[in-house]
Protein 1
Amino acid sequence: MSAKATLNHLNLPVGDIAVSLDFYVRKLGFAYVRHLHDRKVILNAGGFDFFLEEAPPLAVHPKFHFGLETSTDGVHEFARKLEALGVPQVVGPQPTGRAETYVTPDGVRTVLYFADPDGHIIEVYSHIGVDVGYVDPDWGG
């Protein structure tokens, strides 16, 4: 593809637009932009357009999640905010297998996971880490 494109939005299917709108705006602090119609709204999350669209019946894939990057202190602040709001952390891929704020042994990465009202997993993290995974030299992309 020769045309340059920029990733601009995510459209998240939800079971109840009113419940999800309340969660993302009042609990997570996303900014309300406008309704496109009675079952679809646009929010803004740090300059990124985030659409919620009511689309029952809803099937949430257990591997789907999206991440919010912040600082290490920001992850801990987020954990305190979630606790105050009564939003529990959930088990993510941290090696402890517990729903907790996890810090890697080297102290580089801090991460937590929680779910929205439909069960979509949201990750809050301080750093992806440049030393994780690998680059496949045979992949010609």
Note: Residues 36 and 117 are 21 Å apart (CA to CA).
Protein 2
Amino acid sequence: MRKRNVYFFERQHFRQWWLWAIMVGLNLLFIGGFILQIIFNKPFGNNPMSDAGLIITTGIFLLLSIYLLSGSLKTFINSDGIYIKYSPFHVRYKFYDWRDIDSVQIRRYNPLREFGGWGIRFGKRGTKAYNVSGKIGVELFLKNGRKVLVGTNQPDYLETVLTELGKMEQKNDG
């Protein structure tokens, strides 16, 4: 991996307010239940789950929240190609060499309809997506027939960089 001559760099985090509201609400609910049932020895709800079940469920929601808090999508572009790292799942950058990319396109997409949400996802048409927020991404059309979509919150800057690198056709406004 060559981090020299980086023409584009972006780091994105999960920032959907409604997702955070749900996670905070669920965490407060289960932490409250944990305190009530485990510490004060009073059943949580009309039909309380076992202590072990409550501990495991509370732990899962806390871990999921930590995952969302620490999760990020890093993208950088240099003269070699496009590098993607989706933390915490990727230890190293995933590399797409320009020699293996037939063409690129900046496009609008619907994360829920096309990919069933955010994350590392596969679409109905076989496109692999890396996205954490937004509705615009760069789609890579690989020479092997596969497609990869990488979400971005900087589409104008990304398009400028790709055009300057000769990877996108310039728009003709005439």
Note: The CA atoms of residues 16 and 142 lie 30 Å apart.
Protein 3
Amino acid sequence: MSEKHLSSQFDSELGAVSTRVMELGGLVESQIRQAIFALSQFSVEVADQVTETETRVNAMEIEIDRDLSSIIARRQPTARDLRLLIAISKTTANLERVGDEAAKIARMVRSIIQSGSPRSLPSLELRVASDMASALLRKALDAFARLDTEAALAILKEDDLIDKEFDGFVRKLVTYMMEDPRMISPSLDLLFLAKAIERIGDHAKNIAELIIYIVKGADIRHTPMAEIESVVK
């Protein structure tokens, strides 16, 4: 069997796995949209749909990892191809964790509704941060599909904005709890919900870092932004 034929088979298998990763990304994106809708409308029904999807997300992660293990065992890739496969595996793990965060949001929404005082809390203000996190994940998936390091760099910078939204929201919740002790329990639910949204942004950032790792061969985790810019450019 010729080297060209082996390469063509590898490319075909790699393409199939990449397609599955993008399908997983689309499923997780829909989870986030549903979770945000459940929050804005205080809908238990939609929240339940989010948690039901979690099983499917987990199954897809296992299937993709199994396919990746098979490719590595049979093809024994080296250099850039191996980096790509490792990065796909890590991207899959990050997407599964985004799904976990969406399910966590859904559970918190249910808890807030059951507390009996959801309308008195500033939950709608989380919409800005949640929309930013959802958009950041979408950009990360698009950049991953194109292996676009410039787009990945922009995502790393944008994640800081979500962190600032989170910090501002925490300060507001603390004020609510100080003014009315009855708001402490539902406010804590909302705080955990806000943290879940922030974590979605973090996972999008992780995927952006993996794009740079694939293309440039550099691990830029915990690296100052100035150094990351020099690696990309």
Note: Residues 1-5 have pLDDT under 50 and may be disordered.
